[in-house]
Amino acid sequence: MPYKLLGIGGSSIVSAASDGKTALKGYEVWDGDQRCAYREENGCEKLLAQEDCVYQLLSQHAHILECYGLIKVHPGVHSLRLERAPYDNVREFIRNNRTTPPSQDDRLRMALGISTGMAHAHAKNVMHCDISCRNLFLFPGWCVKAGDFGSAAVDGDPSRANIVEEIRYELPLRGRAFEHRSSIKRELFALGSAIYEIMAWEMPFEDLETDDVEKKYASEEFPDVTRLLEGDIIRDCWAEKFDTSRDVEEAIRKLQQKLESDLNSEPLPVYRSLLPYFGLSLGLLLVMLAIGKRGRYLSKAVAH
Questions:
Q1: What are phi and psi of 165, to 5 degrees?
Q2: Chain segment 141-188, per-residue pLDDT in tens
Q3: Parallel, antiparallel, or unpaired for β 28-31 and 34-38?
Q4: Paired residues of 24 in beta bridges
Q5: pTM of the prediction?
């Protein structure tokens, strides 16, 4: 099949693989002997090898994009073969379905998925360093998987210290030097923004320019979350009240369980609650009619 571009990042190009089920992430796209798209190498081979190592460290997980390793697409040129998301990245899906968001329960499931995926990554000492809905991928059943670990830091790798998140996902300095912000707090702040984007079905302060967003964050002004199902959880991520992504995951699970419990304990509508009594009354009536009919039959039999 002819090549198809799926996305272009800061240092990579993502294209559809010929099998129709996977994607290739690299810096050159080849269709047979023809180079169709490319970026300057500039260390891309090393970066791809590092990302491959991160995926190997993470191994298979329900909420981490599956990686099938490096493949040679041309002599001396390699790409990462990755699981292909049928519904693209979450941000693109939101933009394409702006007026028809899924139910709150489904969005809650999406938020739980990314929290679970991040908790797994952090347990492996992997910091994503670029959590964003453009790096989260959507699969059937509202399953969300984290991908694009090209900026990830393993075991506090200092070479990743200067990597910054999108402005809407970046933890404010709050009186600290840039490098003195905790890595996990940065991840959790970004996780809160991802959950907001999923639950609100739009980016934080989507209508504002990035400079204006940065000023608001610096002044501790954040989007209103009072109307959102996970508003308290998002607010606590932004306020640095969570210590681990596992804490965020557990908070979402508890919310999900509470909602299910409340649904199961809702009082039945009056007409439904009276149905057993109607059934009992109808049964008694039928018994009485049967007895009366049999009594009349016996009386006639005796008379004759």
A1: -80, 170
A2: 999 999 999 999 999 877 776 788 999 999 999 999 999 999 999 999
A3: antiparallel
A4: 15, 81
A5: 0.85
The first and second tokens of residue 276, run together, are 């057993």
Flag whether pLDDT at 303 surpasses 70.
no
Work out the burial of residue 145: count CB atoms within 10 Å of its CB; fewer than 13 is exposed, 13-18 middle, 19 or more buried: buried
Give CA 272 to chain center in angstroms.
38
| Both structure tokens of 11 | 């240092």
The rounded distance, in Å, linking the Cα atoms of 183 and 195 is 18
Compute the radius of gyration of the chain from its Cα atoms: 28
Displacement of CA 96 from its chain's centroid (Å): 16
Per DSSP bridges, beta strands 67-74 and 77-83 are antiparallel
C-alpha pair distances (Å), 113 with each of 33, 138, 140, 288: 40, 10, 13, 59
Say if CB 133 and CB 198 are below 8 A apart. yes
Residues 6+ apart with CB under 8 A from 255: 108, 229, 230, 233
Q: Considering only CA atoms, which of 171, 131, 135, 133 is closest in space to residue 153?
A: 131
Cα–Cα dist 272/267, whole Å: 10
The answer to whether the CB of 207 falls within 8 A of the CB of 267 is: no
